[in-house]
Write a structure and sequence with these properties.
Helices cover 32% and strands 24% of the residues. By secondary structure, it is α/β, with parallel strands linked by helices. α2 (105-115) packs across α3, α2 runs parallel beside α4 and α3 (120-133) crosses α4. The longest helix has 18 residues, at 179-196. Mean pLDDT is 89; it is low at 261-273. Bound molecules: adenosine-5'-triphosphate. Adenosine-5'-triphosphate binds next to β1, β2 and α1.
Length: 273
């Protein structure tokens, strides 16, 4: 009997959030940060959580990171429940002071690899590779305080990608940068993604940034965050920013986020763009 060759096609998302409700203890009872949020992130996605301040974006990211547990619902990575932090999920924050100031660029990128028991020679080779990928080979022995904000952002990204996580969690990573540097970081992130195709969960409250960075966007309602809509945005990028279709979609997203109506009664809907 002939056995046909076959290819395994992944039919499950890398990250699955199902009915995630998260609460914080507060002086008078609890603060509900998110309510019944569900979404799937597939390998290679640039998945954006978009919503106004306080809608629970960072909270969701922290829960995916394993730093807080949902009150209800579940979070799974590759079919396994997320029960705590792990090296398969690395967070890049907007505070680039997350780099150790007493370590050079090279040492900062090597540090988590060595902490994970990688042999020094391999850790160094890996660090040099990723520092090169973010264009900082000339700054291997520079200390963070001598770098610009954009350069520190690149080191943080290199350090995260060097760990080869299953998913990169980015919490408004460019929010503290000036507009020109932010734009350059968007370009560089896009170029890096084209080359490496890593999976990314990206938090922002900027509609334009969401359209430029993401291929899929989950819109969250104001506090507590509920899913308002999900849309495909792969057709947008820096090239289309400012164009008519881009502006029209940004306007529709704005209306969905801030247009009023009782979100609780409104089923999540897909936005056609
Ligand atoms: N540690 C905490 N203890 C109590 N409440 C918290 C805590 N962290 C966040 N919250 C509350 O949970 C809600 C969601 O906060 P979160 O930071 O996740 O929102 P966000 O969408 O990321 O906002 P922003 O864009 O301003 O960062 C807010 O009402 C916030 O006040």
């Amino acid at each position: 009997m002939n056995v046909l060759p076959f290819q395994v096609v992944p039919n499950a998302p890398l990250l699955r959030a199902q009915g995630v409700t998260i609460e914080y203890p507060a002086a008078q009872g609890v603060v509900q940060a998110t309510h019944d949020v569900s979404f799937d992130v597939w390998r290679g996605d640039r998945f954006v959580l978009l919503g106004p301040s306080g809608c629970g974006k960072s909270t969701l990211l922290k829960a995916v990171g394993g730093f807080i547990a949902p009150r209800a619902g579940s979070l799974q990575l590759d079919g396994r429940d997320i029960t705590g932090p792990g090296r398969d999920r690395i967070v890049v924050f907007q505070e680039f002071d997350q780099l150790a100031p007493w370590k050079t660029v090279r040492q900062n990128v090597m540090f988590p690899l060595l902490a994970g028991k990688m042999p020094k020679r391999e850790a160094e080779a890996r660090a040099l590779y990723w520092i090169g990928k973010v264009g900082l080979s000339r700054f291997l022995d520079a200390y963070p305080h001598t770098l610009s904000g954009g350069m520190k952002a690149r080191v943080a990204i290199a350090r995260a990608l060097a760990m080869q996580p299953e998913i990169l969690l980015m919490d408004e990573p460019f929010a503290a940068l000036d507009a020109l540097t932010r734009r350059r970081m968007h370009e560089e992130l896009q170029a890096l993604w084209e080359e490496v195709r890593f999976t990314m969960l990206f938090v922002t409250h900027s509609i334009e940034e969401a359209l430029v960075v993401g291929n899929r966007i989950l819109l969250l309602s104001p506090h507590p965050g509920r899913v308002r809509a999900e849309l495909n945005s792969h057709q947008f990028g820096l090239h289309s920013a400012g164009g008519a279709e881009f502006q029209a979609t940004a306007g529709r997203i704005h209306d969905l986020l801030f247009g009023g109506g009782d979100v609780a009664d409104e089923p999540a809907r897909a936005v056609q763009s």
